[in-house]
Amino acid sequence: MPKTETYPRLLADIGGTNARFGLEVAPRQIECIEVLPCKDFESLSDAVRFYLSKCKESLKLHPIYGSFAVATPIMGDFVQMTNNHWTFSIETTRQCLDLKKLLVINDFVAQAYAISAMQENDLAQIGGIKCEINAPKAILGPGTGLGVSTLIQNSDGSLKVLPGEGGHVSFAPFDDLEILVWQYARSKFNHVSAERFLSGSGLVLIYEALSKRKGLEKVAKLSKAELTPQIISERALNGDYPICRLTLDTFCSMLGTLAADVALTLGARGGVYLCGGIIPRFIDYFKTSPFRVRFETKGRMGAFLASIPVHVVLKKTPGLNGAGIALENYLLHDKI
């Protein structure tokens, strides 16, 4: 089939809270982008049909190829979302949406593919020196959950993406303050993973733990209605609530520890890339936050980590871009 006949392509980036949809009408050209709350739809198919109905005026041809990036492990035809209520069969969904091919990949596989095509102005560098071209790149990022993947560029220019579930590794506290936060979380959960803290809900959990710390009982605190990730970060940046600033500092420190752990595990001298919508909201603060100091505080491995650059992804809708690149690879090479 001529390449032009494969467009438009239906793309989706489905997280725990929102589903983003777009139509790729030409290579790397995505239009009709919509963000829909997952809770508003009983199923993925319902959300897709609603999206297509909104785009019908600009949709000259029905898509026959689709690529969905989803925030959960892909282990066969049946997919169960980790942080929302959707479950679906890939094949049944393909038939329901009248697609010739539906590619379903982990959302951080899509993030990795998107990073492979990014320009310098799509990223903000936080410390380090320069990436080694063919060394592994570590991709991670807090959102509704915490995603992790690895990108390797082979010497021939081809790409290999390794999905993972590194957000669910056991959290290891660094100091007495983090032990206190961990103990609070341990009273609520049987397993305290890194994702419990390094996510939107994690900001709230850290705040709750710190509010019980001796010496902070009487400081100004947020009301129950204000206890959201967005308000915590806003109050932290405004300087009105010291406990919110301590919460954000602790969050960034914890992220520095995990990013360093991932970089050491992978030998990620190709760089560390932080994705997701949380960090870009306070990027100016993040540049001077405790993150980078904590990233390099690894004893004998401090010098190894000091040279590794960390990049915050600023580009909009990288999940959709990555889903499109993965689909293109599949159509060209019959693999991703």
Please characterize this protein's 3D structure.
One of its GO terms (molecular function) is D-glucose binding. Belongs to the bacterial glucokinase family. This is Glucokinase. The chain has helices spanning 44-54, 90-96, 107-116, 176-186, 200-211, 229-238, 242-266, 283-288, 291-296, 302-306, 318-333; strands spanning 9-14, 18-26, 29-37, 65-70, 78-80, 87-89, 101-106, 123-126, 137-142, 146-153, 159-164, 272-274, 310-313. The model has no long low-confidence stretch (mean pLDDT 94). It folds into two domains: 3-112 and 317-333, Nucleotidyltransferase, domain 5 (2-Layer Sandwich); 120-314, Hexokinase, domain 1 (3-Layer(aba) Sandwich). With 336 residues, the protein is of the alpha/beta class. The two termini are 19 Å apart. The radius of gyration is 21 Å and the shape is globular. A hairpin with a 6-residue loop joins strand 5 and strand 6. The strands form three sheets. It has a six-stranded mixed beta sheet with strand order 8-13-12-9-10-11, sandwiched between helices. The protein has a five-stranded mixed beta sheet with strand order 3-2-1-4-7, with helices on both faces.
